[in-house]
TrEMBL record, chain A:
Iron found in the keyword field: yes
Record domain 2Fe-2S ferredoxin-type: where: 1-76
UniProt KW RNA-binding keyword: no
Protein name: (2Fe-2S)-binding protein
Gene3D superfamilies: 3.10.20.30, [2Fe-2S]-binding domain (1.10.150.120)
Domain of life: Bacteria
Keywords annotated in UniProt: 2Fe-2S, Iron, Iron-sulfur, Metal-binding, Oxidoreductase
Listed InterPro entries: 2Fe-2S-bd, 2Fe-2S-bd_dom_sf, 2Fe-2S_ferredoxin-like_sf, 2Fe-2S_ferredoxin-type, 2Fe2S_fd_BS, Beta-grasp_dom_sf, Diverse_Oxidoreductases
Cited Pfam families: Fer2, Fer2_2
PROSITE patterns reported in the protein's UniProt record: 2FE2S_FER_1, 2FE2S_FER_2
Automatic annotation (TrEMBL), chain B:
UniProt name for this protein: Molybdopterin-dependent oxidoreductase
InterPro entries: Ald_Oxase/Xan_DH_a/b (IPR000674), AldOxase/xan_DH_MoCoBD1 (IPR008274), AldOxase/xan_DH_MoCoBD2 (IPR046867), AldOxase/xan_DH_Mopterin-bd_sf (IPR037165), N-heterocyclic_Hydroxylase (IPR052516), OxRdtase_Mopterin-bd_su_IorB (IPR012368), TAT_signal (IPR006311)
Domain Aldehyde oxidase/xanthine dehydrogenase a/b hammerhead, residue spans: 211-289
SMART domains (UniProt xref): Ald_Xan_dh_C
């Protein structure tokens, strides 16, 4: 059995060490807010926090996550940066289909937690790994700026 | 997608949405006591298929349109809330069950969400039943109070009679309203009384899209459910020969190997076990007749077919003679690639087959077709298939297909537990159904003054309509989608012929893709118009204005976009502006794109859109759709291309099927034209507009006319 600390609680899972964290979260722990988009670290839909840093859970093996704090979209609103991002997302009507937005929000929250006043270049470089097919990028950029001013 | 006649001949009309009132009408003839009892037993006040009001005041609005990001649940809720005189915060949207009789989109003739038709269909189609429901509730109060209904007012679902000081909430009137026949009609509100329509309202579907709580089809969780990952034959038309089942089942957590004629799936406790099993399976395929097919074959096939005469969609005058006698003659070939949808939510469907019937959980734009597909695959009658529709993680036409439901059901009928069948991203792209390849030939003449003397446009490509909705084909064999926005342009072009050659390439299935016919033809027409403007030595805006005298709405949109973009003002070196205008999906849109060339690299600098969509129901949502639609189109214009080699799709994931990213997207401005015309469609307009806007900008910046998508200056011939 493997112990993982997810959203502040320890959980035990009977899963292989080389299993990507994404599938533990979605298919074993039932935390489906974290999304599957590509399985190859190319789209950012599966972004979660590992000790506060944004990581792609489809590229993070269980063995890499043991002993670290894993946080998902379900609890990101409990952090100041996460709450500010969620509020800005709703205030500016960022969301369309919403499928990529868990990952976008996790990425943006990690950015703001480490860099409360990001420049346009900082935003581009932090967010360019996250694909949105609905094309919400201009609003994501504006929402990060609003959240950073909060 | 143009209007599709209903294969079954069903024509929704006012009567059809009143069908739901039949029980209440019958109840009205009973004595009062029984009427009350009957009404109470019947549950909520359900005056029609769209509105359910409970005694506790809960108002549920049944959404015939699916929500896939386009904001229609908010727009549709606003239309109904407006006429019901309730707040948007007082209503709850819910999924319509599959039912073509109750929930057909009247513009499509079936229960489908597509073709940017929803708000156009809902404008009358949802306001009217809401107005009738409001009238029934007001009349119930007026009867009870013995006052004139006209003396009652409603605010936030509370009926008031000012003179007597009486008031009653909708919830308290439910039982009374249900005991009387429904009014046959009710007037719609005067626009001066609108409280919601025309104001920017917060979306009703987004709260749980920011906290992980929203449930898409792929998020379904059921007791005992297992996960299957599938592999389809890499070449269309091939068959499964053999698999190493024992190796697959050695994987911890892998439970079963399920086979279809041209696909195989491994079932696991989770996706990872299923994937490990699938990797160990070493499936062997008979690749079938398309095993040697190349992209060059596909292009050659279109090119050869395009030499045929084709079927004429529109002919006016003698364009050949008019072009032959012109001072200047232009002709050009435009080519557009196959495109995948690449929705962020990969294809998936969950099915549980039991002795009592079939349950299906998925996101679909065509609920009745999805239901029928599950019935067919399991051999059950349609009535035994219960479909649970979901929020969709990007549709763009992909969920107008239903084959993924049939495939999931065919696997699920081999097991007795609920089975979630998930497609990997690679399967999703390689086994998508693609936007057709198009090969277009155009010619036109210019007189000595630079005026167009004649115009011909021959489209060659696959027909989605012929497969998807055969009754949508015209009697002469024209697929109206294939020539949409080619047959009718905003311009006065003089003698004109628009024709179509149907060519079905091997190796792929073609499908609707965001922007449908206009996303193809607006690119071709607006690029060629730009070529003509240049050949005539005229400014692209002035040249278009001269052709739009009979089209004031298109011309106003063009003028607004040009003005807001600073058309004609100086730009830095290697930078250019491209403009386009379209009349598509019932809306008028003009876009100016500013692009900078650095070598052969195209950098987007700015986008300015001017939209006349008639009455904007939710203006901020209109802007969001234009922004997103433009980005979707620009992605395809710059990167989108599906190619085949040895019968296999060469693109696999987001590294080989690239999507525009944050750092590549410029500021986008959307300017709305104030209008009281009926609303036009939105979701696909920006996508169609993006292609010519950027291609014309690239020409302005580089002097190179790119007639082939995706735009690639390295491969461009001079032009």
């Amino acid at each position: 059995m493997t112990t993982l600390t997810i959203n502040g609680q320890d959980h035990q899972f009977d899963v292989p060490d080389d299993m990507p964290l994404l599938w533990v979260l979605r298919d074993v722990a039932g935390l489906t807010g974290t999304k599957f988009g590509c399985g190859a670290g190319l789209c950012g839909a599966c972004t979660v926090h590992l000790d506060g840093q944004a990581v792609r859970s489809c590229q993070t093996l269980v063995s890499d996550a043991v002993g670290h704090r894993i946080a998902t979209i379900e609890t990101v609103g409990q952090t100041p940066a996460g709450a500010a991002v969620q509020k800005a997302w709703l205030d500016l009507e960022v969301v369309q289909c919403g499928y990529c937005q868990s990952g976008q929000i996790m990425q943006a929250a990690a950015l703001l937690a480490g860099n409360p006043k990001p420049s346009d270049g900082d935003i581009d470089s932090a967010m360019s790994g996250n694909i949105c097919r609905c094309g919400t990028y201009p609003r994501i950029r504006a929402a990060i700026k609003q959240a950073s001013a909060a | 997608m143009t209007r599709i006649p209903d294969p079954a001949g069903f024509r929704p009309d006012r009567r059809s949405f009143l069908t739901g009132s039949l029980a209440l009408v019958v109840a009205a003839s009973l004595p009062l006591g029984s009427r009350m009892a009957r009404a109470a037993a019947a549950g909520p006040f359900a005056p029609n298929a769209f509105i359910r009001i409970s005694e506790d005041g809960r108002i549920v609005l049944i959404m015939r349109d699916v929500e896939m990001g386009q904001g229609i649940w908010t727009g549709a809720s606003m239309l109904m809330a407006e006429e019901l005189d309730v707040g948007l915060d007082q209503v709850e949207p819910d999924f319509a069950p599959p039912d073509d009789k109750l929930y057909a989109n009247p513009l499509l003739g079936q229960q489908a969400t597509g073709g940017s038709t929803s708000i156009r269909a809902d404008w009358e189609g949802l306001r009217k039943p809401a107005a009738i429901a409001r009238r029934a509730l007001v009349e119930a109060a007026a009867r009870e109070w013995k006052v004139a209904p006209a003396d009652c007012t409603v605010e936030r679902g509370v009926v008031r009679h000012a003179a007597s000081g009486r008031s009653a909430s909708y919830g308290s009137l439910v039982a009374l309203a249900a005991t009387s026949p429904l009014p046959q009609d009710a007037p719609l509100k005067d626009r001066k009384d609108w409280k919601l329509i025309g104001t920017s309202q917060k979306r009703v579907d987004t709260r749980h899209k920011v906290d992980g709580g929203a449930t898409y089809g792929i998020d379904v969780k059921l007791p005992g459910m297992k996960i299957a990952l599938l592999a389809r034959c890499p070449v269309l038309g091939g068959k499964l020969v053999s698999v190493d089942e024992a190796s697959a089942l050695k994987v911890k957590g892998a439970h079963a190997v399920l086979k279809l004629e041209d696909a195989v799936a491994v079932v696991g406790d989770h996706y990872w076990a299923a994937k490990q099993g699938l990797d160990a399976l070493a499936a062997k395929w008979d690749l079938g007749p398309n095993a040697r097919l190349t992209q060059a074959d596909i292009v050659r096939g279109h090119e050869e077919a395009s030499k045929g005469e084709g079927v004429v969609a529109r002919q006016e005058g003698d364009p050949d003679a008019a072009i032959a006698g012109a001072a200047k003659k232009l002709s050009a070939v435009y080519q557009l690639p196959f495109l995948a949808h690449a929705t962020m939510e990969p294809a998936n469907c969950t099915v549980h087959v039991t002795p009592d019937g079939v349950e299906v959980w998925c996101g679909t734009q065509v609920p009745t077709r999805a239901q029928a597909a599950a019935a067919e695959a399991t051999g059950q009658p349609v009535e035994k298939v219960r479909l649970h529709n979901h929020l969709i993680g990007g549709g763009f036409g992909r969920r107008l297909e239903w084959e993924y439901v049939g495939i999931a059901a065919a696997f699920a009928k081999q097991v007795d537990y609920p089975l979630k069948v998930v497609w990997s991203r690679e399967e999703d792209i390689q086994h998508d159904r693609f936007r057709p390849y198009y090969y277009d030939r155009l010619s036109a003449g210019l007189d000595a003054d630079g005026r167009i003397t004649g115009w011909t446009h021959k489209v060659t490509g696959s027909s989605v309509m012929a497969r998807w909705a055969p009754p949508g084909m015209r009697e002469n064999g024209i697929d109206p989608d294939a020539v949409e926005c080619a047959e009718e342009t905003p311009y006065d072009l003089g003698p004109v012929r628009v024709s179509w050659v149907r060519h079905e390439p091997p190796g792929v299935v073609t499908a609707w893709w965001r922007g449908v016919g206009p996303a193809h033809n607006v690119f071709v027409v607006e690029s060629f118009i730009d070529e003509l403007a240049h050949a005539a030595g005229k400014d692209p805006v002035a040249f278009r204005r001269g052709l739009l005298e009979k089209n004031p709405r298109a011309r106003a949109a063009l003028d607004l976009a040009a003005k807001e973009a600073g058309w004609g003002t100086p730009l830095p070196a290697n930078t250019g502006r491209g403009i386009m205008v379209q009349h598509a999906f019932g809306s008028f849109l003009a876009v100016v794109c500013e692009a900078e060339m650095s070598g052969s690299n195209i950098q987007l600098k700015r986008l300015v859109a001017a939209m006349d969509c008639g009455q904007a129901v939710n203006p901020d949502s209109v802007r969001a759709q234009i922004e997103g639609g433009l980005v979707f189109g620009l992605t395809a214009a710059l990167y989108g291309e599906i190619t085949l080699d040895e019968g296999r799709v060469e693109q696999t994931n987001f590294d080989t099927y690239q999507i525009l990213r944050m750092n590549e997207v410029p500021p986008i401005e959307v300017h709305l034209v104030e209008s009281s015309e009926s609303p036009g469609g939105l979701g696909e307009t920006g996508t169609a507009a993006a292609f010519p806007a950027i291609a014309n900008a690239v020409f302005a910046a580089s002097g190179k006319r790119l007639r082939k998508l995706p735009l690639n200056l390295d491969k461009a011939s001079s032009g």
